[in-house]
Write a structure and sequence with these properties.
About 15% of the residues lie in helices and about 35% in strands. The chain is of the alpha+beta class and about 240 residues long. The chain has 2 domains: about 5-95, Elongation Factor Tu (Ef-tu), domain 3 (Beta Barrel); about 100-235, Threonyl-trna Synthetase, Chain A, domain 2 (Threonyl-tRNA Synthetase, Chain A, domain 2), CATH 3.30.980. Strand 14 and strand 15 form a beta hairpin. Helix 2 packs across helix 3 (about 140-155). The longest helix is centred in the middle third of the chain and has 20 residues, at about 95-115.
């Protein structure tokens, strides 16, 4: 079963009608189309509800990929009812949480331009996130990094997308900043996220349309994780 990924074309969709294609062996719901982002690339899967034609609400606790990257599984909350296969439902995400993740995800892209070092790990939370950098000891100051990050957010730069082939990405390895999370490849093409004039890198996540939407952020902590690894945490303020 294949799920159309509507969030790839428009991360601002809050709800959509969809048809139930199937229920897997664990009770996960597979739709023909979705606005729910599945866990991946350090970004958590979306929560929300599916509303049946009769008005019943099925709470969705999280969203994950199925057996391959073409199938998206909506995981209902424990004890929730299930829709019928073939039924049309309205899928509605928890928009407030999604928007916080979009803002922090875009800010983390900018953080890689403030700290232009290899990224060894990362995670996106609800209004906070972190990146791990391969950086030699010393020289990192929270206030200085915050000031430079905010300066770049203040460019009010548009955030756009473009697609290249897997082969083009393989021929341009410098586009990949993350050492631990590989770009979403395998379908023949890869999406690049372009913060115009500031950053260009492959990413399958959701982002705001302009850096002004990020708002104010601050570096909240810098931790030493091993000989050269430095964990930099940021949060919306």
């Amino acid at each position: 079963m294949t799920t159309a990924l509507l969030f790839r074309d428009d991360a601002y969709l809050k709800e959509t009608e969809a048809k139930v294609l199937g229920i897997n062996e664990r009770g996960g719901i597979i739709l023909d189309r979705t606005i729910f982002y599945p866990t991946g690339g350090g970004q958590p899967g979306d929560a929300g509800v599916l509303v049946t034609a009769a008005g019943a609400e099925i709470p969705i606790a999280t969203t994950v990929y199925g057996v391959d990257k073409t199938e998206i599984v909506h995981v209902p909350a424990e004890g929730a009812g299930l829709p019928a296969v073939g039924e049309t439902v309205t899928a509605r995400i928890d928009w407030d949480t999604r928007l916080k993740r979009m803002r922090i995800h875009t800010a983390l892209h900018l953080l890689t331009t403030v700290l232009p070092y290899p990224v060894t790990g990362g995670a996106i939370g609800d209004g906070e996130g972190r990146l791990d950098f391969d950086i030699p000891d010393g020289g990192l100051e929270k206030d200085a990094i915050t000031d430079e990050l905010m300066r770049r957010i203040g460019h009010n730069a548009d955030v756009t997308e473009q697609w290249i082939t897997d082969e083009e990405l393989e021929n341009n390895p410098s586009l990949v900043k993350t050492m631990s999370v590989k770009p979403p490849m395998g379908t023949g093409r890869v999406r690049l996220v372009n913060i115009v004039g500031l950053d260009l890198q492959p990413c399958g996540g959701t982002h705001v349309k302009n850096t002004r939407e990020i708002g104010a952020v601050a570096v909240t902590n810098i931790e030493k994780k091993g000989k050269q690894n430095r964990r930099v945490r940021i949060a919306l303020v």
